[in-house]
Small ribosomal subunit protein uS14
Amino acid sequence: MAKTSAVNRNAKRERMAVRDKGKRAALKAIVMDRTLPVEDRFDATMKLAQLPRNGAKVRVRLRCELTGRARANYRKFKLCRIALRDLASSGQIPGMVKSSW
């Protein structure tokens, strides 16, 4: 199990990313628009820098839903390799069987 504080911190980042998504997209559109004056684009850049860094989607870490493990996760299942193997071995994931050859 991962530390509860790490899992909670990541959940907070997810909430902040959803909350700030529209504001960040609008400011980024202004920054990328080459037809606008340089002053307006610079102001948008400064406003974007004022937003909390944890509100960026890039800061969210993919963690296992069961254990909170941060590494070796499968996006399709939102599980780490260890939890996925345990569930697959016990028959909890439909259609998944152990490989044998």
